[in-house]
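Ticket reopened. Same input as before:
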Amino acid sequence: MRIGIYGFGSIGRLVAREAVKRGWEIVGAIDIDEKIIGKDIGEILGFEEKYGVVVSRDVEELIDADVVVHATSSYLDKVYDQILSLVRLGIDTVSTCETLSYPYYRYPVLARKLNEEALRYGVTVLGTGINPGFLLDTLPIVLTAPFNIVEKIVAKRSLDASKRRKSFVEKIGIGMDPEEYMKALREGKLTGHVGYAESVYLIADAAGIHLDKVEERQEPIIADKDMIIGEFKVRKGEVIGIKGYGTGYKNRKEIIRLEFHAYLGAKEYEEIMVIGTDYEVRWRSTGTPGDQGTVAVVLNIANIINDLSPGLLLMTDIIPFKPFFKH
Amino acid sequence: MRIGIYGFGSIGRLVAREAVKRGWEIVGAIDIDEKIIGKDIGEILGFEEKYGVVVSRDVEELIDADVVVHATSSYLDKVYDQILSLVRLGIDTVSTCETLSYPYYRYPVLARKLNEEALRYGVTVLGTGINPGFLLDTLPIVLTAPFNIVEKIVAKRSLDASKRRKSFVEKIGIGMDPEEYMKALREGKLTGHVGYAESVYLIADAAGIHLDKVEERQEPIIADKDMIIGEFKVRKGEVIGIKGYGTGYKNRKEIIRLEFHAYLGAKEYEEIMVIGTDYEVRWRSTGTPGDQGTVAVVLNIANIINDLSPGLLLMTDIIPFKPFFKH
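Engineering reply: fixed in the latest deploy. New output:
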C-alpha cells in the first residue's frame, strides 16, 4: 500500500509511524508548517535514517498514493479545499476531520458538493476515527445486530486526560478558570470534543430515522480541591476537563444518548447499552487509547477504501447493520 | 419486506413472530413435519386469528418472497438441496445453518458448488446467527478496528443452559451419564455447540491469514453434587452442560481462541479481548439471548440482503474491517 499523508502534525506523524510498522510505503507528506517543510520525514519521526520523503506544501506530491490520510482540522469548512484538491487528483481519501464523519448536519451544502466532486472524479472520501467514527456510533450500531427491535441506544466514553497528548489537554482547557473556559468555548477558541451530533446522526441515519431534535451540550469539570495528577497540578476551582453529551429524540422520547467524559484522573472505559423491546445488553470495555485508536481505524479503512464505491461515504454506508427501531 | 420461512421449527417460528413485529409480511412457510403441514401459521404461533398462510412442503410456495430465512439443520450436507432449491427459485437466502457460516472448511466442494449456483441465478446466500455469525467472529473482527497490528484475539461466551429452550438442553446432553455423553458426541448423536472452527476461520479469513492448524474440542461439565437449577434436577456425576473451544495457530502461536461454555447455572456473558502490539482492550457484556439473538441477526441481514452482490457470501465479506496481523 502506498500512502500519502496530508497534515503532518501529531496525528499525521502517528499515521506515518504506524503505516511503516505495517510495511506500507509513505509516498508523500503535506503540511503548511514552515518549520518542517523540506525536512525528511524520517528525521521528524526520529528514525535512524532518512526516509527519502520530505514534507512538502504541494499536494501534487501525493499523486502516487493509493490512498491519502488527511489529518488537519476538525471543521469541514476549514478543510474543504484541502480534501477537494485530493479528490481532483483522483486519490481516495480517509480523513480524521470530525465533522466529515457526518457532514450533512453542520455542512449540508459542502457535503453535497464534495459528494458530487468525488463521484465526478471516481474517488472515495470518508471521514472517520475513534470518536466520532467508531466507539460511539459504528460500534453501537454493530451491537444492535442481536436485537429485533431497538428502543434506545446509550453509549458513554470516559478517559483520563492526564494520559493524553498536550494538544488534547489544551483543547479541553485543563487548568483554566471556569468562566474564562465557558467564554472560550462559546467563542470557539476552545472546542472540547467535536462530534457528539455527528455520532447521533450516524446512528439515526443507519436506522433510517428522522430525528425530531438533536441536542449537544458540553461543560467543564471543576477541581473540588488542589490536585496533582500525573504531570498536572491543578488548583481547587480550576478546570480539570470536560463532560458532554449528544442526544437524539424521536416522538419526544430520547432514543439515542452519547456521553463523553475527559478529565484528569477519570476512569478509562467505554460502555454501550442497547435496549430492545424484550431485553437489553450492556457492553463495557477496559478503555481504548484515543490517538492510536483513531490512527488504527483510519489505517484499517484506508486498507479497504480502494474497493469501496466512489462518493462521499459514511461509516454507516459500509457496515451492513441497520438498527430496527419501531415508531 | 416479504419473507419466506424454510423450516418451521422453534427458530423458524420465532423468525415468524419477530418478522410480524417488524411489520413484515410472511408469504410462505415450508416444513416436512406432517403434524403441521396444512395448518395456518397463525394457529401454530398462537395468534388470535388465522394468518392466511398454511405450512407447505412445496418450496415453490415461497416464490413471492424478497428473502427466505432458512432454519432447519446445522450441517450443510443435510441442507444443501434445500438451499439449492431456493437459489433456483431466484430467492436471496439467509440461513441459520451453522456450518454454512464458513462452509469452505467442512464442505469445500459443496461451498464452491453453492457459490457457483448462486452466481448463476444471481442470488445471495449467507449463513449467520448469533454464534457462529456474530458474537465470536463478526464482533471480534469489528473490535479490532482500533488496533493497528493485532497479535491475538480471545473471545468467550458463557450461558446458563437452564434459561434455554428444551431442544438446546437436549443438544448439550444435560442429565446424561458422562461416558454415554462422550459416546453420543463421538457418534454424532449429540452435537453440542457447532461452529467453533467456523468462527475461527471467519476471523482468519477476514485477516487474510492462512492458519497452520485449527483445533476444536468439546467436553461435558459434570455436576459435583446433586443440584436443582430452575426446572432441572441433576444428580452428582451427571452432565450439566458443555464447554468447548476452537483455536487457530499461526507460526506455532495460538492467535485466535474462542471458547463456549453452556451449563446449568453458568454466568451469562460474552468477553472479547483484542491484544495488539501496543495495548489490549477487553470488552465484556451482560450476556446476549441465544435464540432471539440468532433470529435478530438473521432478520437484520435479511433486511439488507437484496442489496448485496450475488454469490455465497460470508459475514466477513460484508463488514469493512480486516484485522491486520503481522507475521
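Residues 10 and 168 of chain A are 10 Å apart (CA to CA). Chain A is about 30% helix and 30% strand. Please confirm and we'll close it.
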